[in-house]
Amino acid sequence: MTNDPFANYKDSPIAPSTNCFAVQPSDDEGLPVPTKALYVGQAGDVMLLALRSASPVLFANVPAGTILDVRAQAVHATGTTASDIVGLA
Q1: d(Cα 45, Cα 81) in Å, to the nearest integer?
Q2: What pTM did the predictor assign?
Q3: Cα(15)–Cα(36) distance, integer angstroms
Q4: Which domain of life is it from (predicted)?
Q5: How does pLDDT run along the chain (89 residues), one tens digit per residue?
Q6: How buried is residue 43: exposed, middle or buried, by Cβ count under 10 Å (0-12/13-18/19+)?
Q7: CA distance linking residue 72 with residue 45, whole number of Å
Q8: CA-CA distance, 74 to 77, in Å (whole number)?
Q9: Model confidence over 23-41: pLDDT tens digits?
Q10: Is 85 in contact with 76 (CB distance < 8 Å)?
């Protein structure tokens, strides 16, 4: 087990991510946990629902390697053409 010198510090939205997971865009399922950001591995559009939004929003033409600094609760399949998306939480 790795010794974490920051284990006693409280997490915050601007702290580095401690949980990363592959995102499978879905029109029916939300993300397992809200993100601090999304990493987009392959370029394209990302249709997401932000944590406190009522409607999804389109991030168009997101370049490969971009980190979208947004707290997302879902990434929709409809409208998302980007791939290799990683949730950073």
Answers
A1: 5
A2: 0.92
A3: 9
A4: Bacteria
A5: 788 888 888 888 888 999 999 999 999 999 999 999 999 999 999 999 999 999 999 999 999 999 999 999 999 999 999 999 999 99
A6: middle
A7: 15
A8: 10
A9: 999 999 999 999 999 999 9
A10: no
